Amino acid sequence: xxxxxxxxxxxIIGEHMVLHLARHPFFEVVAYGSSRTEPLKDRWxxxxxxxxxxxxxxxxxxxxxxxxxxxxxVFSALSSPFAEKYELEAVSAGMHVISNSSPFRLxxxxxxxxxxxxxGIVDKYTSKLIKNPNCTTTGVAIAIxxxxxxxxxxxxxxxxxxxxLSGDSSLTAYNSFGNVIPYISGEEEKIxxxxxxxxxxxxxxxxxxxxxxxxxxxxxxxFIKTGKVYSKEEVIAALENLQPVRxxxxxxxxxxxxxxxxxxxxxxxxxxxxxxxxxxxxxxxxGRINVEQNVxxxxxxxxxxxxxxxxxxxxxxxxxxxxxxxR
Length: 327
Ligand SMILES: NC(=O)c1ccc[n+]([C@@H]2O[C@H](COP(=O)([O-])OP(=O)(O)OC[C@H]3O[C@@H](n4cnc5c(N)ncnc54)[C@H](OP(=O)(O)O)[C@@H]3O)[C@@H](O)[C@H]2O)c1
Fold this sequence. Notes:
Strand order of the largest sheet: 9-10-8-11-14-13-12
Shape: globular
Radius of gyration: 19 Å
Largest sheet: 7 strands, mixed
Helix content: 25-40%
CATH topology of the largest domain: Dihydrodipicolinate Reductase, domain 2
Bound molecules: NADP nicotinamide-adenine-dinucleotide phosphate
CATH superfamily of the largest domain: Dihydrodipicolinate Reductase, domain 2
């Protein structure tokens, strides 16, 4: 087993990491880091009774303590700016850091990875710090990559997001209940830059990001201008054609599920599909697919906590293991 730590285990992403690493076939979590010292079960927002988790103590861990415990991999769900300092210290001590947090995502030396989009890049970097993209970028990057792989000639992207409350732990119920907030600080710029870094696409990408009164699951309305006219069947075939990365235990059974009903996907119904997967919530959904002349339209739904968060990091850890990089 590979000894691992979860940094930020008391946060919403960290809790999901803890849950899904609890019975992992080759990662063994030996440290659950937090700024507070208290039993994990006092923080636990997820179903009770998962084997072994009730006795876990959260507490601050120094990097030296992690090293003394033999930790080789730190899964980081820390908020910035603490993430920046802690992750770099762990790397300096020789650990691999697989991080969800935003610092360094755009650094040219740091790989930004979704295995189904750009798994090959892990071999081109020497960095021990790797990142998964912003939760919203994850949904659009998976869809755009599927279209690009199929040879669809993309000329311009228009994206509007409807992002859930769990995507921002700083929001208060007062300003978000029954509301739509048409601004998320820094989000639109992040989505454009991360999408370009991951897919290599160099075209105009126009984004509006909004926070909506939904607990989990980010919806994204996508319009794509293309260089020629494609049929709806070709678009669906392209999306369905994106394959999970074989051998990774947390790969979903399918990367993109197509909904044909006119009112799907919906966050409340479809954020946790494919319950038979090791980690439910790893599949991205697409619906309302239509083509008008040279414009493709669709809605995307991505589970921000899982595919765009905890599950995305775990999948990246598995990728590094299978590429024999976690030494
Ligand atoms: N929520 C999402 O949908 C989402 C999706 C993708 C990426 N992300 C990114 O993932 C990271 C975590 O997000 P989140 O929503 O889970 O945030 P969160 O609920 O606020 O959790 C932040 C975690 O960081 C820990 N932390 C902060 N300062 C610390 C310190 N000085 N020492 C030790 N631990 C400290 C917190 O511990 P305490 O509670 O003990 O202070 C908590 O466990 C962020 O960087 C976020 O940008 C979030």
